[in-house]
Each structure stands twice: as structure tokens, then as C-alpha cells.
Amino acid sequence: MMLQTTWVALVLGFWSSLYLIDAFLKSKKRIARRYLSFVDKTGLSVSICQLRWYTPLLNRFFLRLGQCRPRFLRTWFTLGVFFSLLAMLVSIFLLSLLVVNTFRQTPVEQQVLTPVMPGVNLPASQISYYMLTLLVCGILHEVGHAIAAVREQVRVNGFGLFLLLLYPGAFVDLSTEHLQAVSPMRQLRIYCAGVWHNLVMAVVAGLVLMALPGLLLPFYTLGGSVVVTEVVPNSAVSGPRGLKVGEAITRISDCHVKNIADWSACLAESMRDKWTGHCLPLDLIKEMDVSPANRIGARLRRHPRPWQIIDCCNATSSTHLCFMYHTKKSAETKYACLPARPATDRPVCRLQSDCYVPKVEAACVYPAVDNQTRLLRIFHGQRPPLLFLGHPLDLHYSVSLSNYVPKLSFIPVNLPFVIETFCKYIVSLSGALVILNVVPCYALDGQFICHALVELVLRSSVPDREIRSFIYGLIICLGTLLLLLNVGLAMWTLFL
Fold first, then answer.
1. Which of 155, 219, 381, 484 is disulfide-compatible with 247, CB 3.0–4.6 A?
2. pLDDT given for residue 450 in this prediction
């Protein structure tokens, strides 16, 4: 709750300051003329919670694209019309089904529309991906409208970008007179072009996701290990002797790690398997044991207390750890303060029988820790294994990993994650824009698509324009109500 309040305060503070600065500069006579001239030249404008930029400089670019291969563009945008009409039916069906199931109190497994709120259901680390994806989707959406308009001989007046609160977007200014003069079918090609381009973006991003391992194969290796992409500061594995970004992890103790799934499986196995020790000859145990001779008396051996077992090394040590074991001659549990690294370098064992060595009496020594703590050896890079003492979940949350291990040191370790995350956002947001924009609702593309469709289908059978306008208005009202119901339900679910 505190994080949400902070976000709201920062956003409101930014927009309030920007609006007050704009009003102040416009009210001062000495600088108002220069400021207004600057705003007019740059195309910038400030309003309540909105910043806009508008320019006609891209009109020639749109003109060239719209006049290139006219037959292909005609077929391309005609396909967009058929897809958009089909998407409109599917979107209306899905949104209607969600409303009906909600009022019937039927469980809905997945929300069709989910509002994205920074600090609520959008992590702060993902805001840059979200805003960039929205901007790219909006730009390509409007570029589709512009190219289709040029193809249908409708003048493009200008192009612009805007920032509304935290949501960036784009818009294209088309000549209203030219739009009204062309046929309904040509209008549909223009109105459906944006949604069509959103679908193409989502499909392309999905294909890139599927082909990503092959595309990155010349620069990264897969299936041999995982690479560290981030280490949480002040965590159990940070610091000079901890894990480093770019290091490859191959094993956790005796469990091999070839991908992130193996990493999770190894950690889960370590939580299930408590008794994992190492084989040490008894003579070596006595030689390495640095615990005081009178530290654990006979009474403590019979009834050891947990904190006394863990602290058999007198105090917390960075090099030594308390181990427990028993011998063949005696079932009595014994404790020894041993250097952790030399002890864990010995062969792994789970039972005393695993430590059979001819003519040498050996014991399987186990870390004397509580039920939740594990001693794990993390094999990373070319350095000695990192010894981790703690709960395996702490290790899981302390590092971020990737399956893509760079072949050369200068290749960025985060590049595959950036590409993958960006593509996932494009698939999700671009697909959501398709579902949202085709709904016959006020101020959306669906409103104009619906108007052109009514004119195309009913002009011959319903010659009265007022009746056609009534049918169009009724559809738009119902579509707007349907969308508002879904948005309300989504907000209710989000903050419930």
C-alpha cells in the first residue's frame, strides 16, 4: 500500500509541476512570446495530465510508403478488414461471456481485460518494458492508419505522440473531408489497418520467441549450464567471494545444473534430502577438529541442545562449521568443529555404509544444522565452489539466472532476457489492443469500423440515413456499455 501511494504521489507531483510551469511561462509577458513560439515550432503542448507532440514532417515518409506497391497494399489492407471484422465478433463474444459468467457467479479462470497498474500488478523493474512496448505498438498502429489512408487517397495532416499519465501512445491526423468522401470499403481499409498491424506485431513477436534459441546460437550456448545475470545486494551469495554476474553455474553439490529447470529441481531436492554428508577418515577428523576438548560433555552428548550443536565451534566462523557423525563401534553421536571447505571436498555420502574404505575407518559427517538449513556447494566459473549455508529458498531469491551462456566475455548476459521480455510484452499488449480496439465503442477504432460497416451492409437495403444512424448509435451504445462493464469488473477483481 505504501508503494502504491508513493507512485500516485510521484505521478501527480510530476504532472502538477509540469502544468504549473506551462501556465507560468504563458502568463509572463517577457517570456510568453518566446515560449509560445518555441511550443509552436516544436509541436509540443501541455494539458492536464497529458503531454503531446505533433508534426507534419513525416507526411512525405507516409506518402512514399503508401504509394509503394499499391496492389500489394490493397490486398494487405483488405486482409486486415476481414481479420478485424472477425476479431470484432470474437471480442464481443468473449467480453459478453465474461459479463454473463460474472453475474451467474461462475468462476472465471482468466480475466480477458486486466488493467495494468504500476506498483500494483506491474513490478517497478518492468515499467520500462511496458512503456516502450505501448509506445512501439501505438506508433506502428498509427503508421498502419497513415499508410492505408495514403493508399486510399486520404490526406495525412500530421503525426504525433502523447503521454497520458503513465501511458504513452501515438496518433495520426487524417483529413475528415477526404475520409467522408471515400467509399465505406475504403474507409474500412483505413480504420482496420491499425488493428491489423497490431496482430502482425504479435505474430512476429511470437515467432521471434520460438526462434530465439536458434537466433542466439552463434553467440550463446544452451544446455550445459546457467549464467548469473543478477545478484541481490547484501544477500548470502553477494560480496567478493560470492557469485558474480556472468559466471556459469554447473552444479549444486552433486546435482548437475544444465538449465533453469535443473536449478529449481536441484534446490527442491536439497530441501527434501536433509542427510547429505561427506566421507572423512576418523584420523583426519581428529586432526582437523578445533573444538575444545571439554566443549561437549557426556550430558550434552546424550541430550544436545540445538544452539549448542550449531555453536560447537564456540562462535560463528567464516571457515569452520560444526559437523556430527558416529562410528561403527559406537552409535553415540559425536561433534567436531571442522574447516568447512576441506571437509566438503571429500566424497559425498548419505549413509555410513557409503564410506567404506579398505583398512581405513571412515565416517559420514553431516552439518549440525537445524531442519531448514542446508550446506550446499555451488560450482561456478573457474573459482573454488561457493559454500552456501542457509535455506535453499534464500539462494533461489538471491540470484537471477539465464539459460543463455555467452560464448565470449564481451557479449551481454542480459540481452536474451531483454529480447524475450520485450517480445512477451508485445504479444500480450498488442493482442490486448486488438481485442480492445475492435469493440464498437466510443473513441475507439471499433466505433469507426462499425459506422463504415453499417454503411457498407445497409446502404442498399435501408436507404433511410436516419434509420442507419439509429442502428449504428444503438450498436455503439451497447458496445460501450459492454466494455465499461468489463473494465469495471477488471478493476473490481484487481483491487478486491
1. 381
2. 94
As beta bridge partners, residue 400 has 230
Quote the CA–CA distance of 46 and 49 in Å, as a whole number: 8
Q: Whole-angstrom Cα distance, residue 403 to residue 406?
A: 10
Top-confidence residue, 7 or 414: 414
Q: Give the Cα separation of 163 and 83 in Å (integer).
A: 29
Burial 367-390 (b: 16+ CB within 10 A, else e): bbbeeeebbbbbbbbeeebbbbeb
Q: Which H or E run includes 252? A: strand 248-252
pTM of the model: 0.79
In 3-state terms the chain splits into helix, strand, coil percentages (rounded to 5) of 55, 20, 30
Residue 152 a catalytic site member: no
Report how far residue 401's alpha carbon sits from residue 343's, in angstroms, rounded to the nearest whole number. 28
Rounded CA-CA distance 273/374 in Å is: 9
Is the per-residue pLDDT at 258 higher than 60?
yes
The set of cell numbers assigned to 493 is: 477483481
Q: How far apart are CA 446 and CA 441, in angstroms?
A: 6
Residue, of 447 and 126, whose pLDDT is higher: 447
Q: Which of 483, 278, 283, 252 is nearest to 366 (CA)?
A: 278
Which of 142, 152, 247, 455 is catalytic? The answer is 142
Burial 212-227 (b: 16+ CB within 10 A, else e): beeebeeebebeebbb
Q: What single string gives the DSSP state of each residue in 324-355?
A: EE--SS--S-EEEEEEHHHHHTSPEESSGGGG
Residue 159 · residue 424 · CB < 8 Å? no
Residues whose CB falls within 8 Å of the CB of residue 90, separated by 6 or more in sequence, listed in order: 435
Q: Who contacts 201 (Cβ-Cβ below 8 Å, separation ≥6)? A: 136, 137, 140, 426, 430
Cell triple for 177: 473531408
Which cell is 352 given? 555410513
Phi-psi region of 356 (alpha: psi -120 to 50; beta: other; left: phi over 0): beta
Please report the pLDDT score of residue 78 as a whole number.
95
Distance set, CA 281 to CA 286, 288, 351 (Å): 9, 11, 14
Q: Which amino acid type is present at position 424?
A: K
Cell numbers found for residue 16: 502538477
Phi, psi angle pair for 160, to nearest 5° = -155, 165
> Residue 365: helix, strand or coil by DSSP?
strand
Domain boundaries, the chain: 1-45, 49-212+419-495, 223-273+384-403, 275-370
Per-residue pLDDT averaged across 184-212, rounded? 95
DSSP letters, 386-443, are EEEEE-HHHHHHHEEEES-EESSTTS-SSHHHHHHHHHHHHHHHHHHHHHHHTS--TT
